[in-house]
Amino acid sequence: xxxxxxxxxxxxxxxxxxxxxxxxxxxxxxxxxxxxxxxxxxxxxxxxxxxxxxxxxxxxxxxxxxxxxxxxxxxxxxxxxxxxxxxxxxxxxxxxxxxxxxxxxxxxxxxxxxxxxxxxxxxxxxxxxxxxxxxxxxxxxxxxxxxxxxxxxxxxxxxxxxxxxxxxxxxxxxxxxxxxxxxxxxxxxxxxxxxxxxxxxxxxxxxxxxxxxxxxxxxxxxxxxxxxxxxxxxxxxxxxxxxxxxxxxxxxxxxxxxxxxxxxxxxxxxxxxxxxxxxxxxxxxxxxxxxxxxxxxxxxxxxxxxxxxxxxxxxxxxxxxxxxxxxxxxxxxxxxxxxxxxx
Amino acid sequence: xxxxxxxxxxxxxxxxxxxxxxxxxxxxxxxxxxxxxxxxxxxxxxxxxxxxxxxxxxxxxxxxxxxxxxxxxxxxxxxxxxxxxxxxxxxxxxxxxxxxxxxxxxxxxxxxxxxxxxxxxxxxxxxxxxxxxxxxxxxxxxxxxxxxxxxxxxxxxxxxxxxxxxxxxxxxxxxxxxxxxxxxxxxxxxxxxxxxxxxxxxxxxxxxxxxxxxxxxxxxxxxxxxxxxxxxxxxxxxxxxxxxxxxxxxxxxxxxxxxxxxxxxxxxxxxxxxxxxxxxxxxxxxxxxxxxxxxxxxxxxxxxxxxxxxxxxxxxxxxxxxxxxxxxxxxxxxxxxxxxxxxxxxxxxxxxxxxxxxxxxxxxxxxxxxxxxxxxxxxxxxxxxxxxxxxxxxxxxxxxxxxxxxxxxxxxxxxxxxxxxxxxxxxxxxxxxxxxxxxxxxxxxxxxxxxxxxxxxxxxxxxxxxxxxxxxxxxxxxxxxxxxxxxxxxxxxxxxxxxxxxxxxxxxxxxxxxxxxxxxxxxxxxxxxxxxxxxxxxxxxxxxxxxxxxxxxxxxxxxxxxxxxxxxxxxxxxxxxxxxx
Lengths: 343, 581
Known about the structure:
- The complex is a heterodimer.
- Chain A is an alpha/beta fold.
- Chain A has 13 helices and eleven strands.
- Chain A has two domains: about 20-130 and about 250-305, Periplasmic binding protein-like II (D-Maltodextrin-Binding Protein, domain 2), CATH 3.40.190; about 130-250 and about 320-340, D-Maltodextrin-Binding Protein, domain 2, CATH 3.40.190.10.
- Chain A has helices at about 1-15, 40-50, 60-70, 80-90, 150, 165-180, 185-200, 210-215, 225-235, 265-275, 280-290, 305, 330-340, and strands at about 25-30, 50-55, 75, 115, 115-120, 125-135, 160-165, 205, 220-225, 240, 250-260.
- Chain B is an all-alpha fold.
- In chain B, α5 (about 145-155) packs parallel to α11 (about 255-260), α16 (about 360-370) packs across α25 and α17 (about 370-400) packs across α24 (about 535-545).
């Protein structure tokens, strides 16, 4: 009896171990969690008779660590702008030349010559947005378009602030507030930044990624936030307004790219071309709540999205800044400041 | 006395043969568990050891250059301003906070867990299992989800504050959430069964004649508890403390959610190095220092040694300890409160998991249509079940030859190896295993879910091993010897005597292994291949973008299934017992 049980278990294990044999007509996508519209995937599966598996990651760094070791088995990844730059430098992406694909004409020209992939030889736009903050207008009635609300908050916002638990987002916002450049290795300026952040932190309640939940539960009245999250939080808390601070802010773009050594290279290329159709881009935006950079997709996007003040930037706002990856010595200094801030 | 020489020489050769056989069995039973952990745990760890002596690479990874900088950095830092090297307390402070929080958690778990385990152990056998399952069921729900449910209870507009305001005890919300209190509460909640199950396994065989003897000698209830019961339960208590203290040292998801993320824990600090700080050598160095500290505490545990026990005799009066049953009930209420909240919110019409609007089945319909979430749930169950079965078998084999035995060469080493997966923070195991598996995958070309199952099995082994070992330490060898004297062959002795006696320990171990596998986030995140997203990974992906009540619906279904399963096992178990009688 026990023998039999053991044999069964062994057999089951073996079956599982050999379960994922590579077959024609597969595609393995590795994207941020809860960021891919299942209907869009279904459409692609039907169009090209491909079986798609979809897995999620929680940060660019996790994805990099996993992919860099090789043998991950994934075909498609969706890294942020700076991560595309790093991955190209490390030779992790396949040069699939989307700029020669049939649907490339749909890509908004302003997203072609970008710092992370000049001329688009490796990647195409997926979603893009900004990182600012959103604040309850009934709690704070003054002008919201200044970083001072996070770093030197008025009395009514003290202890009611959530910051993203993201080293780069917090430090970059701090540098802008002080008027210093990004990727900064000037020690005098960093020292000033350090003491400014330590002082500001006393007024923060939390440092967490779960922006929507922090705001809708009324645990905080201001949160550093991505624009799509701010829009979704506003749905449950209409008093929220998304700020475009005069000191400037970060823009970011996630991009579809193909991994070097992708097991299903041809299907990956098909998927890339498919993602440049206005239909697919609109489906993604409707699901993820961000803009996409594909011309002609607006017509198919939900009206609340194309009209949202979080997505459509006012003319008066400064241009978003896309921050390239900083050198290791700068990162070392940043992580010291970050550790000191969080100790 | 007349012919001593002949007999003694015969005897000694028999003893030698027996010794040889014993040694064979010993190492034979130890080998599978040790080998699994050696391959999946220790070989990857050597990668971490090497990395800690290298320089960080550009944008993550390492550069192959010898350097001690990672260790220097732990205690000294270059001043940002004048580049002088000075003593820094930043990392020590983080270490100290984590250790302090870990200790508070362990003590609180012990204070609540011991009376609970005692109460359960003194119930009639039929009810005992029901209680055990009652303790375990909440843990079928993912830790992330349960932690979210705690947010709902503790926050400013949460249940406690709203009801206190309503009955007029307070007029402004108490700041319960985002405090050290909330973090300890969350950790106690997360690790309580790790304390209850081993202590239960140890107490279950308590000989109440000893308690009776104590009372006969005019001892008070407290004195009996202190002088008789607690010393007898020591192996279980030690095992429980280790199972709570070590994981809570490395924990970082619970502190981040409930503490508001304003203070780093060791776990966060290490994760930062492998993530945005891109300093893998430093992350490896911190992990190794933590591991050495933990190993030291394990050595202290090993010194505490084994205890004896015998078969139980029931006498309700003797077993009573004031307040213990109340604590057990309190424990159940605390365990189930967040679960109740999540069940409630699975019927909430609103999209947000934080505000109640109206009753609906929407989220069940959505979950039924969501292939991703269903697939993830199945993968989770598959992996957890297989990992539980294999790790429990391996742990049982290993426990048989590492307890109730005179010390032999390699015994302590074997125990340390078995527990190795416990001693390393998860992030580090995750990265190390990732690198190691990638090498194997590229060399052999074999892919599939086998890797994920192997990784889960490895870290489940110590969780299964601890309660089984605690149980065995309380069993004496006399029954087995009696069976052997009656010419029962060794396997029959094992099946008919040893196995039934150690069953409560095996059950406790298997349950822990199952829970631990079902809850794992970090290792799975790094090891899972295409199509192997588990439920915790699915939820992790949602945290950043907003958790939907679909998860609550799925968790509620999970709970339902577990309750049905447990009831079936329970009914089946009692019927079988009746048949035997």
